[in-house]
Here is the input.
Amino acid sequence: MNAISSPFRVAVLDDYQRVALQMADWRSLPASVSVEVFDRPLGSLDAAAAALQPFDAVCLMRERQPFPRALFERLPRLRLLTLTGGRAPSLDSAAATDHGVLISHTRSGGTHETTVELTWALILATARHLPREDRNVRAGGWQHTLGTRLHGKTLGLLGLGKLGAGVARIGQAFGMNLIAWSTNLTAARAGEVGAELVRKEALFARSDVLSVHLVLGERSRGLVGAVELTRMRPGAIFINTSRGPIVDEAALIAALQENRLAGAGLDVFDQEPLPPEHPLRRLENVVLSPHLGYVTAESYAEYYHDTVENLAAFLAGKPLRVLNPDVLGKMRPPPLRGDGPAERMRRAKPSFATKPSDTSA
Here is the structure.
């Protein structure tokens, strides 16, 4: 193993549960590598730039920390980003290349399966009012609500890629009728999972449960608005485990406040973490989860194993899983020196940095 001649500082961002250092063998890195873990969002661009100034490498957890061009411009020391998963819309990869910053990514962590599972957790919890009834029982009460039977109801899928198809198959097991729509969806593709291709208007009008499974992009941003939500049945349930900005959040809140929907199960939001005073936190007919679709022990173990592997490969001059290969001719090779096992064992234990977030401002 090789190590750099001066300290190579690594920042691990947004480790909310403080588990990153337990999920991989960080001590396998060279002795001259120091690791600092941030367990809260950095907040504004100014706050992020100030916090990350001293670091040579930054380890991102998905798109929790946006990395626009303006941030790259303020981090002249930065040389490596390692990203969990294979894509992050909030990361400007062209800017990384322009600034000579290499981006390595990890494997997916099995997130298709975990997000499908969470989608059904939210469907069931919303249909049977489980969070509300849990609070009732703990407070000494008993039955307060009437649940909704799913068998025989219509499950509408806004998007039928890997995630939508996975949700559809479980819907079949519950005895639900399946309908689906997306811009490029064909009847043949819908039929592969037992779904009927319908028009967008019919998807919202006919669904008893409507679940969103689209990638966030220019075509999908704001796709679900007041018009679409108005078409939904009064007893319908709305589920979103995709991305918050696909839905007009204000329109969804209004529909829930006015009880035009029976309820919603939401794992994603316009602003994450969700601000403490956000109106969604006060609605009884909403089941909220803090973007848990990919948050499992198995996913994190794969993510952080690959993150450490990416760091080691970069320091050895043999980067792995490179997202922006055009940067390779622009990088400065790290100055290396020999480093034996005994020296690696003397490396100080990585530390945590707890930074206040200004996301609620």
User: Anything to note?
Assistant: Residues 1-5, 335-352, 354-361 have pLDDT under 50 and may be disordered. The CA atoms of residues 46 and 72 lie 12 Å apart. The chain has two domains: 2-110+297-353, 111-288.
